Each structure stands twice: as C-alpha cells, then as structure tokens.
Fold:
Amino acid sequence: MGHDTTFRHCLDIEWKASLTDPVREALLTRGQSPDLDSIRKLFPATSGDAAFDPDEIEAIAGKLKTIPEVDLGHPLLDLSVKAGLASVDATFQGDHPKYGVKGYAEDCHDGFPPTIIAAVDALSAWGLSSRARQLFRYWILSFVREDGTIDYYGTSISEYGQLLHTAACLEERAGIEGWWSDCLGPLNRMVEYLLDLRASAERDDGLIVGSPEADERDQLGKYFHNSSWVAKGFYRWADLCERQGASPSTAVEAVRNTANAIEADTLDAIRGCWPKDADDWWLPPRVEPLERPRCLTGTREASYTNYRYWPELLSSGILPRGMANRIVDARLSADGQFCGMTRFEGWLDDWPLADYLYGLWQLGRKRDFLLTLYGHVAYHQAEGHLTAYEQVTFPPGKEKAPYCLPCQLVAARAARLLTSA
Structure:
C-alpha cells in the first residue's frame, strides 16, 4: 500500500461516517496486503500521557527472557510486545492484579477476570512461565469464592469458561508446578457452579441466563457468547483433568457430554434468532428480542455486541465456519471498525480485541488479522511510550478512557500467532 494522494483522498471522504472500514476498502481496491509502515502514515499518531515511567517499562522489558525471542520483523511491533509484557509487572501490585491506572486502579476493579486471562495468556505464550503460574495461582485462590462464583461485581458467564480455558493453556505451555494442586479445588467449584446454571437452563432451551459484561450486568439474558464459552470451558476442563489424572466432582465424561449439549443448544438458538437473509448484518447477541439498530454504533446494545459479544462468540471456536465468517462480514459492513480497530459509539475501544484477532486467525483471514493488529499498534497505542488506553478518539487520537492492561496486551497476545505462521 503506497502512501499517496489518491489513497489519502479516498480516506478523507467522510471516513468517520462510512459504514465500511475505509482503510480496508482502499486495500481491497488496490489488491494489497496491510503494511505497518504504510498504515502509520495515514493519520496523525495518538498522543497522551504515559501510564508508567517509560524508563521503568524499558528496564523491565530489558530483563525479560522470552521463548521465543521477540523478533517479528518490525521494530514497532517488537516494542509493542515487549511493552505489553513489561506492563504486567508495572500494573500488578506484586501478585495482586490491577486493571489499569487512574480510576481503573480502584480496588473494585481488581477481580475483573479479563485482567488475569490476558496476563496469563500473554506471559505463557512468550515462555514467561514462572510468572504466569505465580499470578494465576494467586488470582484463583484470592477471587474464587466457596460457592464457585467470582468475587467481582460484574462477572460475565463467559469469563468462567475463559478462566477454565486459561488453566488448560497454562498447563499446556508452562506445566503444573506450583499452581495445579492448589487451584484444582477452586476451579472444580467454578465448574460445579456452571453445571448448576446449566441444569436450571435445561428446563427451558438450555441456554444459560446471566450477565454478559460488567457494565451491562443488569441486562441479564441468554447470550450466545456466554453459553458458547461455558461449552468451550467444559471441553478444556475435561481434557485438562484427563491429562492430569484428576478426579473432579463431576466425572470428565459427564462434563464433556454437557459441553456437547450446550454447544448444540447454542447453535440451535443462533439459527433460530439470526435472520435467514444471508445479507442481513444484524445478528442478535441473545435469544431475547432487541431493538434493531441502524448500524453497529446505533445503540448501546449494538456497540457492546460489536466490541465484545461477537468477538467472544468467535473466539470460543464453537461456530461452524459459515456462521463465524458471517460475524466478521457483519462487522465489516455495518460500522464495526475503523483501520481494523473496534468502533464503539463515537470512539474506538480495543481492550477485548484479542478475541476478535483470535477469531480471524482461526478463520485464516490473515489480511484482516494484520489490518486489525497493525491498526491497533499504530493508533490505539500512544506515540513514543506506546501506552494503550482502554478507549481512544478517532485520529488524531487522544485518551478517551485510561490505560488498562488487557488493551496493552493485545499486541503481545496476537503477535505471538505470527511466530507460528
């Protein structure tokens, strides 16, 4: 992709009002693959204050011994990965989690599951095994209650499944030393809690009723991403226990059978709720009726669907290929992204972007994957110190909401996939 007057003019024509991603459209028109250097030339860089002393981040990054070595072919991408990994220790207080800075450093946010999910995923993916095991053990022992629920004000049902998946990833990448024997009990209690929810759901259509996301915790419903991640979590738990010869309260085969049933019920419900017209982009995120939005930033529910509910449904991996591609195509045609980044109401919000990137990778949509990753690196991180704010304005980008760790770790998590390409 060349940085020339024609391309720039194409982007300047009402790009904020475009339902499609103007950068992606221009790339397709020219038949070119995304290139980080060229993408960085399109708009003014994001600016703002650093979340942490850049010298501190550089010092932490300099001590990291990753496996493999961070060498992705572009210095900015390498720095983004290292800054993310270094930000784990800068953000956490010892082993105790913090979501971010400013208001996000308040104690009420400490138990937010995506913080530990992102941290353990990133650390273990890059071979920082000891720290990943240490942080996961602390979190599970500190935030899982005796009844199996999470000690947080707005845990989504999907996050329980994601934590089970995280445990399985940690075992696969880093082994069980120092965490498995202590965490088996609390993880087992989480599974039993989810099984009870499923048992209640079987009286109806099998979909679990619950909170979809912390900010929307009062909007209880049968959300597809929630049930899909419970199914994924059960599959992963069953496999993990089988590998380790564990004997959980509910037998492995019973858990696996329940996962199969939840997956089937969820897919049946989706087929019943999504429009038959393949060109209709509004794919409701739940069974209960919602107002049809004019676009994906047209209502609050639509924005949440675009930025979190659809990406988590994608990353669960339960969707057949046609359904999964339909989600991506809907996002691309109805105001869902800009330069790969996620549109939310009138700004950009990328902290859950890793789920979308994982979904793109699973589908083999590498050009979309690269545009999304490069757009995030170029414009969701501030120039110079690379602080990733939770939300930013359209270019010229400014901080809309403070730094948070899951957003800072998007590049580290997604870019690791490129080393296995």
About this structure: The beta strands are 337-338, 341-344, 347-349, 389-392, 399-403.
